[in-house]
Specification:
This protein is of the alpha/beta class. Helix content is 23%, strand content 21%. It has a ten-stranded mixed beta sheet with strand order 1-9-10-8-2-7-3-4-5-6, with helices on both faces. Helix 5 links the parallel strand 5 and strand 6. The protein is globular and about 55 Å long.
């Protein structure tokens, strides 16, 4: 049974946010998120982030994010993933969270096909060193090949090993250029790219001014500890842009917010 999620701040398409069931205000995240406008193109994919944090800004408990969420968070997570052509993630997050090829439940599959997406999102791993164990769960499905975004100077031996299980693409000389990485994903036919971090990857994307949208699940916990906040990196060289609140949902005590970059058109 899906957890009850309700809308606090409706989006511009309120009729698309609720199930056909007459219960007022109840959200069905997969169909609701799929109905939201993400006008990306293969020339410039729409980049949107999704992170979970505690009330005091922590993104992990015991080194992983799972304890911060729950059934409601997972439901929204599935909805957001259903709207992604590609999922951008750092190598350390892939290892720590034991990423696997995306699984597509019937409702997710229907939403993806209705939007003209592939049945499964392509996971794109960012790594300069190519230090990814070949026995990771991500590489366990011979019918699924993720893409690895790396640099021309990456070690030759690691590149050869990973090319057996993934598509290895250069997106920089010595460091991964996030603009080049996003462009490379567009070249592969992707119109929407979801960043799942971790915090360092998000910080690099913010520094490059690439985010069109930010989603944050706020968990009703105080975690303390030393985990990073959702994005970390050097101070920005210019004034941070203010994003506009597009919707706010709640479920199981969590808040699920969506903010988008103000449009100039």
């Amino acid at each position: 049974m899906e957890p009850q999620i309700t809308s606090l701040v409706p989006s511009a398409e309120p009729s698309s946010l609720v199930d056909e069931d007459p219960t007022p205000g109840v959200i069905v995240p997969v169909s609701a998120v799929a109905a939201e406008d993400r006008p990306g193109t293969t020339e410039r994919p729409w980049l949107f982030g999704n992170m979970v944090s505690s009330l005091d800004g922590g993104t992990a408990i015991g080194g992983v994010s799972g304890p911060l969420g729950g059934a409601a968070d997972f439901a929204v997570f599935r909805g957001i993933r259903a709207s992604a052509d590609a999922i951008l993630v750092g190598a350390s997050t892939v290892i720590e969270e034991q990423y696997r090829p995306p699984q597509t439940a019937p409702d997710t599959l229907a939403a993806r096909r209705a939007a003209g997406r592939e049945d499964r999102a392509e996971i794109a791993v960012v790594t300069r060193s190519l230090n990814l164990p070949i026995d990771l769960p991500l590489f366990s499905d011979p019918t699924y090949r993720p893409v690895i975004l790396t640099v021309k100077s990456a070690p030759t031996e690691q590149r050869a090993a990973l090319e057996a299980v993934a598509d290895v693409v250069n997106a920089g000389e010595e460091d991964v250029d996030m603009s080049a990485a996003l462009k490379a994903l567009g070249t592969r036919g992707h119109r929407t790219v979801l960043s799942e971090g971790g915090p360092t990857i998000n910080g690099q994307l913010i520094a490059a001014d690439l985010f069109d949208e930010w989603n944050l699940s706020l968990s009703p916990m105080l975690a303390a500890g030393g985990s990073k906040r959702p994005a970390v990196g050097p101070e920005l060289s210019s004034e941070p842009e203010r994003y506009e609140l597009a919707r706010l949902w709640t479920g199981e005590g969590l808040l699920f917010g969506r903010w988008i970059r103000p449009r100039t058109d």
